[in-house]
Structures are given as structure tokens and as C-alpha cells.
């Protein structure tokens, strides 16, 4: 594990260009060159040196308050941070706890829970997975059936989770469980933290279209979880679930994937001579404008979250916009790739390559997980536009 030597400086005091320059120097010095611009998510083993480098510097949780091990960045510095990571072509970290669980524990966790779990996340020592979706309870999350029955000082958990991101590699899971069947669905849910090594927990990896096993089914057969691992009050987990889903939709609404895909599309266009096609240039210009608009919306919602403002149902718009823009860009890549675009291998040019099909396949799942875009549209129609449902 890395020796933590947290940078004592307040990065918000630096001028933006100074901060950018420092980030760039650090990226060039610490990020593995062979992992730049991967058209897939790096494995835990591949990304571990970068995870440790960020942890050593105290830069793994840019938006957390400094007193909890984060950088405490302002919205402007936060956006610069991820912009520079994107420009450098860094791979995605195992970041569920950084973006989702950590902020939730800071808001709702006990002092003991913060002391136990936040350092392990901020220092990259413990990998977490998210246990929300179940067979028959994905977008309709309130219908979940995994049950947790209190028995002395433990909850006895029985049930199944599915599409559990990072479960094959995780040390811990944060999950929603049903603790009361006699009340309305949303009122009988609790939020638990469980060690993945607990007897009675079994992980079965799911192979995706790209031949990778980022997701898994997780089975609970009488697994005992200490009561002290309950976050918030019993039967009141839905409040935290809504908070976490809002944070997740900001994460899924990040323009980073679309910005990277647009760079690869422009590279493909230059290499194939498509920039001479006026119809294509018109479509490319629209994609560029849509990306600018997405970046502006993302900045607004990140600013609200930073100020502790409650995110309303309209945040669903950000998730829909970002994921469908990513899809549109990658669909354009397949068109430009021609016959080579349909193969699951990189299209090789003289000085570079673009893995067209891999990008296209990467763009499909985000419209489904975190609440499918159809469900997001229903939320917007009912809760924002006031339409009958």
C-alpha cells in the first residue's frame, strides 16, 4: 500500500493555468504511458500504479473536503482536474466509492463509519462495488427483494444482486436491502455496507459484449452483516438512495466520455478524408455544439452539488443527454470506419489507430445502467413537466 504524503497546499489558491501545469506535469510523470487512450476500462492490476500515485499525493478524491482526505477543489478546479485527465487519456479508476459512497458517508455516516471507511477509499486501499439492481428490480429499484433481518447485533442478508459493477474485484459492497415488508416499498429499505469476504456471499462474473467481466451477480445466502454497518436509520435508506442516485447521474452525465469519443471521431475523419464531406462536417459541428452545451449543464449540476444543494429530478436530463450524445458520436465513428468499423479491432492508420467497434459497444451500457434512459424520461415527464403518468 502507498505511503500517504498528502499535498498540504490548497490547490484552489493556485491560478487556473498554474493548476493545469501542475496536473500535466504529474500526469506525465506518474501515469503509465502504455495505458493512455485505451478503448477499454483498465484492469485493477493495470491501473493500480496510477491509483497508488494519486493516493500518495492525496489527489484521489478531488471533490471531498480536505478534512476527510480529499483535495477540496472548487467547481472550477474540479472541472480542470477531470479535463486534464481526459486530455491525457487516463483510464477510468475503480471509483464507485470516490464519487458515490464517500460523499454519502460524509453526509450521513456516523463518526465511527467515517473513521473506518473514508481513509481506505481516499488512500485507494479498498475497492467498493454498488449493490442496487436485482432481477426484476433494476430501473424500478424500490421493488428490490434482497432481505436483511435483524438478529441480535447482525443483519442476516438473503437475496441476489445483478449487474453489480466491479464486484469481481471489490473488497466491500454498499447496497440497498429490504428491512420491512409491512410498509410501502420505499419506506422499508435500508442502506448497508458489507465485506465481500463474508461467509454466505458468492460472486458470479458476467461477461459483457466486449468479453470483459466488469459486472457480476452477487448472491447472499444468510450472510451476517454487523448492525454497525447500517448507514443512517433502519427503513430510511431510500432517502440516501435518492441522494446517491442524484450523485450517480452527475457522474454518468460527465462530458468526459463524449469529449474523448469526439476526439477519436475527428481523428478518424482526418484519416479518412471525411472533412471534405459537407454533410459530415454539418453533423460534426452539431456534435461539437451539443458537447459544449453538455459541458455547461454538467458545470451547473456539479456546482449545485458542491454547495450542498439538493438535486431535483431534472438531473435526469443530464444523464440522458450525456449518454445519448456518446452513442451518437460512436455511431458516427462506425459509419466513418466503413467495413473496418464493424470489426472488433482497431482501425490502423499510419501514425495512430482507433478501435471503432470497441467505442461503439462502450457507449451502449450507460444508457441502461443508473436507471435506463426510458425511466429517466418518465421521471422528467412526471416530476419536471407535470405530465400525467
Tell me the Rg in angstroms: 21 Å
Total count of domains: 3
Distance between the termini: 52 Å
The shape, in one word, is globular
Strands across the major sheet, in which order?
A: 1-4-5-8
Compressed to H and E, one letter per element, the order equals HHHHHEEEEEEEEHHHHEEHH
- Strand segment tally: 10
Structural class: alpha+beta
The major sheet is characterized as:
4 strands, mixed
- Sheet-strand content, in percent, reads 5-15%
SS summary, helix count? 11
CATH topology of the largest domain: Butyryl-CoA Dehydrogenase, subunit A, domain 3
Determine and state the CATH class of the largest domain: Mainly Alpha
Provide the CATH architecture of the largest domain.
Up-down Bundle
Query: Helix proportion of residues, in percent?
Result: 40-55%
Mean pLDDT: 87
Q: In the CATH hierarchy, what is the superfamily of the largest domain?
A: Butyryl-CoA Dehydrogenase, subunit A, domain 3
Low-confidence spans: pLDDT under 50, at least 5 residues?
none
Amino acid at each position: 500500500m502507498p505511503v500517504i504524503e498528502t499535498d498540504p497546499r490548497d490547490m484552489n489558491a493556485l491560478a487556473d493555468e498554474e493548476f493545469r501545469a501542475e496536473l500535466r506535469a504529474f500526469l506525465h510523470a506518474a501515469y503509465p504511458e502504455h495505458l493512455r487512450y485505451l478503448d477499454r476500462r483498465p484492469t485493477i492490476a493495470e491501473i493500480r500504479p496510477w491509483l497508488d500515485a494519486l493516493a500518495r499525493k492525496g489527489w484521489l478524491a478531488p471533490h471531498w473536503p480536505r478534512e476527510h482526505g480529499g483535495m477540496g477543489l472548487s467547481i472550477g478546479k474540479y472541472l480542470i482536474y477531470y479535463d486534464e485527465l481526459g486530455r491525457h487519456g487516463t483510464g477510468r479508476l475503480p471509483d464507485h466509492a470516490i464519487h458515490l459512497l464517500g460523499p454519502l458517508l460524509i453526509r450521513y455516516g456516523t463518526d465511527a463509519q467515517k473513521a473506518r471507511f473514508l481513509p481506505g477509499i481516499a488512500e485507494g486501499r479498498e475497492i467498493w462495488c454498488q449493490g442496487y439492481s436485482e432481477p426484476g428490480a433494476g430501473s424500478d429499484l424500490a421493488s428490490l427483494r434482497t432481505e436483511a433481518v435483524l438478529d441480535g447485533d447482525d443483519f442476516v442478508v438473503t437475496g441476489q444482486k445483478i449487474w453489480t459493477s466491479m464486484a469481481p474485484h471489490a473488497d466491500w459492497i454498499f447496497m440497498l436491502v429490504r428491512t420491512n415488508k409491512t410498509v410501502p416499498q420505499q419506506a422499508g429499505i435500508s442502506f448497508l455496507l458489507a465485506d465481500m469476504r463474508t461467509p454466505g456471499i458468492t460472486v458470479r462474473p458476467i461477461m459483457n459484449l466486449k468479453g470483459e467481466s466488469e459486472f457480476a451477480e452477487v448472491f447472499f445466502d444468510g450472510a451476517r452483516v454487523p448492525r454497525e454497518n447500517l448507514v443512517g436509520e433502519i427503513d430510511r435508506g431510500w432517502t440516501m438512495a435518492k441522494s446517491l442516485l442524484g450523485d450517480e447521474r452527475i457522474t454518468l452525465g460527465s462530458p468526459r466520455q463524449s469529449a474523448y469519443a469526439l476526439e477519436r471521431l475527428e481523428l478518424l475523419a482526418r484519416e479518412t478524408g471525411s472533412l471534405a464531406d459537407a454533410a459530415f462536417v454539418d453533423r460534426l459541428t452539431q456534435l461539437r455544439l451539443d458537447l459544449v452545451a453538455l459541458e455547461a449543464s454538467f458545470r451547473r449540476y456539479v456546482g449545485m452539488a458542491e454547495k450542498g444543494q439538493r438535486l431535483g429530478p431534472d438531473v435526469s436530463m443530464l444523464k440522458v443527454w450525456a449518454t445519448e450524445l456518446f452513442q451518437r458520436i460512436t455511431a458516427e465513428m462506425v459509419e466513418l470506419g466503413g467495413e473496418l468499423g464493424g470489426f472488433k479491432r482497431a482501425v490502423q492508420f499510419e501514425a495512430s489507430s482507433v478501435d471503432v467497434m470497441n467505442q461503439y459497444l462502450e457507449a451502449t451500457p450507460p444508457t441502461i445502467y443508473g436507471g435506463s434512459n426510458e425511466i429517466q424520461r418518465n421521471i422528467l415527464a412526471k416530476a419536471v413537466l407535470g405530465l400525467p403518468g
